[in-house]
Design brief:
It is built from 13 helices and 3 strands. It is mainly α and about 290 residues long. A 3-stranded antiparallel β-sheet has the order 1-2-3. The relative contact order is 0.09.
């Protein structure tokens, strides 16, 4: 099978499984990367070559994260097991064990510093929407005018991760900003998208990320801070403010409650629980006082 036919069949295989457009685009992009790297039909690539690609090239040379390498591995498994209908030795292509990551969360001062730095009204609206509603960057790109429900103060999120749809919070501040943006910048565009770039085309993820990096540097924030950090802040701050895990799970669009529970570890929750050390030392101190009084 030629690589051109492979991509064509792979596209059909994904459409038959109703993959989200995020997954579809990712799998096609990464497969094209591999085709360019190996420079021969994928059908002829050996397991040893795939091992070297994953662990010497991606992990060793490009220094990609374990999670990203696993994403590439998933693409490889789909290409060979589904599209090419070949049996591959997964023991030779194992998924990397992931470390438990504690998400970077911005303090209130850091959030203020970031938002204060953004002098472009459209991107300030976007960034505050990402934080105020917990939206992924792809969900922001796909927002339509009709998705903003000002009566019930909620946002309809279409084509979220895993092709799931949900509702999330529409902050009062974001509603006012969106109204101003719609009136002064968006204009009467024929397309249904909410956000557009300077050329009058629907905005894409690259443009948003590029502007976020610019303002992140201006705010002198850590390079690990991304626009997705604002979504992490949304979930963490909700929990700190008393929202239940179930509420946060639904607003975030998580399939599993375990994904939501991660935020408990980074939330600064006042549980009014004393450390056993403090209780112990207080008891010791009381004991000394009693002895001295005798």
């Amino acid at each position: 099978m030629t690589n051109e036919k492979l991509l064509e069949k792979m596209s059909q295989d994904m459409n038959m499984r109703n993959f989200s457009h995020y997954t579809y685009d990712f799998y096609i992009r990464k497969t094209k990367e591999m085709i360019k790297y190996f420079n021969k039909p994928m059908e002829e690539v050996t397991v040893d070559e795939l091992r070297d690609y994953l662990y010497k090239y991606l992990l060793g040379e490009r220094k990609l994260s374990d999670k990203t390498v696993n994403h590439y591995n998933s693409v490889i498994r789909f290409v060979y097991e589904v599209t090419l209908d070949q049996v591959i030795n997964k023991k030779q292509l194992p998924m990397r064990k992931l470390k438990k990551v504690v998400y970077k969360i911005l303090t209130k001062k850091e959030l203020k510093r970031l938002f204060d730095c953004v002098d472009n009204y459209k991107f300030k609206t976007i960034f505050m929407l990402a934080y105020g509603s917990g939206l992924r960057i792809g969900e922001i790109v796909n927002l339509r005018v009709e998705d903003i429900d000002s009566k019930k103060m909620r946002i309809f999120v279409r084509e979220g991760k895993g092709n799931k749809e949900r509702y999330t919070i529409l902050p009062k501040a974001s509603l006012e900003m969106l109204r101003k943006y719609y009136k002064e910048e968006r204009g009467n565009k024929k397309e249904r998208n909410l956000f557009f770039n300077e050329n009058g085309e629907p905005i894409n993820q690259y443009v948003i990320r590029s502007h976020f990096r610019k303002y992140r540097r201006k705010a002198k924030l850590d390079e690990k801070v991304t626009i997705h950090t604002l979504r992490h802040n949304f979930a963490t701050n909700l929990i700190e403010n008393g929202a239940t895990l179930i509420q946060v799970k639904e607003l975030m669009g998580h399939s599993n409650i375990r994904s939501t529970m991660v935020y408990i570890h980074v939330a600064n929750i006042d549980l009014e629980i004393e450390s056993p050390l403090d209780v112990f030392l207080r008891g010791e101190e009381n004991g000394k006082n009693t002895t001295n009084n005798k």
